[in-house]
Design a protein that fits this description.
Helix content is 63%, strand content 12%. The chain is built from ten helices and six strands; from the N terminus they run H-H-E-H-H-E-E-H-H-E-H-E-E-H-H-H.
Length: 441
């Protein structure tokens, strides 16, 4: 869908073009009525309409729930436990105490226990805090990854938007070309009526007019197709009456604001949080607990009756097994960070190459534009002389058409280079990541 490829097809059709200044003032049917659309609005609407953008809200909601869930780790934890067991043997005493009113208890082999326990974290080594930071960073990373996925969207808008602009200008040029040909037909008819020219001159010019009309039909169909694709992309009604405003040449920024750069930083931050998690897992945990239960036997070892009981205190736990793998796991995370640094450096290197090529193309189109203006001035002078010679019967219709095509081809090149300059400038802005600021201010 490149503009160069589109232009080559149009050149083969033998199209010619009129003056650039006259284009903007020419009344016609191309974009003279209907809604107006700017390229900035197209970027914004394309973002809003793209199905993937709906994932942004889901990512935000998921991140919010993850942070809330992590924060609830500081709340007391209530648990209910129960068991019923039958034992093959129980505690018994192999003696008796001959004391009146006192007997050694006999324990039942079926025993029952149910209790409710409440645990409260006092110190967890930083695990909960790490989980909350990880949830927030994960959300940021996912949002940035979404921006990376949306990056190619702006390039597609550029291709369609500037493609429509080019075809619209070429249609206007086609109208002026037909006007010049019709002017030649009128002069040739006058010569034929005066007996100073052959009818074949009128026929040759009429055939050229029909070819220009065929080119107009072809261009109109292509413009309609481009507008339809643009409309689907931005999710709005875009038809032949929609006015696509030609954007101004943007100020080229040297700052790189691509979403990939921030994504690399977010991924490195995730590795830092993983290192902190490893450290937190090596620290002891301290908490309070309280338990109330009912069962047989209770806490009294000399009673075999069902009884209520409660117990509470402080609980300390410290798992030292993490020390075995801590060093290797940390080293793996450091290796991953170095890999990310290399990927970022490679990305910036490739981006710099692309920028350099685009800047060279922009400068090329500027120089071509200057030459186009000089060529047009010369071709226009030759065409005026040819028109006068045709009117005086000293130039053939075929030679007149050749001069028309030569001038209009020069104007065609001017328009092409203008649009190419604009598109390459906006492509450059996209390469540096500054179009995203326009689409998502």
């Amino acid at each position: 869908m490149k503009l160069q490829r589109l232009n080559k097809g149009l050149v083969r059709r033998g199209l010619a073009f009129a003056g650039v200044v006259m284009l903007l003032a020419l009344p016609g049917a191309y974009g003279q009525a209907g809604r107006r659309l700017t390229i900035t609005a197209a970027y914004q609407q394309a973002r809003q309409n793209y199905p993937l953008i709906r994932q942004r809200d889901l990512i935000a909601r998921s991140g919010s729930y993850s942070v809330i869930n992590a924060s609830r780790g500081y709340l007391p934890v209530l648990s209910v436990n129960g068991q019923a067991t039958y034992q093959s043997t129980v505690t018994s005493f192999p003696f008796s105490i001959p004391v009146p009113g006192f007997s050694i208890p006999k324990y039942s082999r079926d025993q029952y226990k149910i209790n409710v326990q409440v645990d409260q974290v006092i110190y967890d080594g930083g695990l909960i805090s790490n989980q909350r930071q990880t949830a927030r960073t994960t959300e940021t990373e996912q949002q940035q990854s979404l921006e990376v996925s949306l990056y190619t969207l702006y390039d597609r808008v550029n291709q369609l938007y500037f493609g429509v602009l080019l075809i619209t200008e070429q249609l206007r040029q086609n109208d002026l070309l037909k006007s010049d040909i019709q002017n030649g037909i009128d002069k040739a008819k006058a010569l034929v009526a005066g007996g100073t020219a052959y009818r074949s001159s009128v026929d040759e010019l009429t055939a050229q007019l029909l070819q220009a009309e065929q080119a107009r039909i072809d261009l109109s169909a292509e413009r309609k197709a481009y507008l339809g694709m643009l409309g689907l992309l931005i999710g709005a009604q875009v038809d032949e009456n929609t006015i696509l405003e030609k954007p101004a040449l943007p100020m080229l920024s040297v700052e790189i604001s691509r979403p990939e750069i921030q994504l690399y930083e977010d991924q490195k931050k995730m590795d830092d949080l993983q290192v902190e998690l490893l450290k937190a897992q090596l620290r002891p945990r301290l908490g309070l607990f309280a338990q109330e239960g009912y069962g047989r036997p209770g806490l009294n070892p000399l009673s075999n009756a069902f009884a209520w009981y409660y117990i509470g205190g402080v609980k300390l736990s410290w798992n030292l097994g993490g020390w075995y793998t801590f060093k290797n796991q940390k080293e793996l995370l450091m290796i991953h960070q170095k890999t990310l640094d290399i990927q970022k450096e490679t990305f910036l290197f490739n981006t710099a190459i692309t920028r350099k090529q685009q800047l060279a193309d922009i400068e090329k189109y500027r120089e071509l534009f200057k030459n186009d203006q000089a060529i047009i001035a010369l071709r226009e002078s030759v065409k005026k002389a040819a028109a006068a010679q045709l009117e005086n019967g000293i130039l053939s219709a075929h030679d007149y058409i050749s001069q028309l095509n030569a001038e209009d081809q020069a104007r065609q090149n001017l328009i092409l280079h203008q649009i190419q300059l604009l598109q390459e400038a906006y492509n450059y802005q996209n390469t540096t990541g500054n179009l995203q600021k326009q689409a998502n201010p």
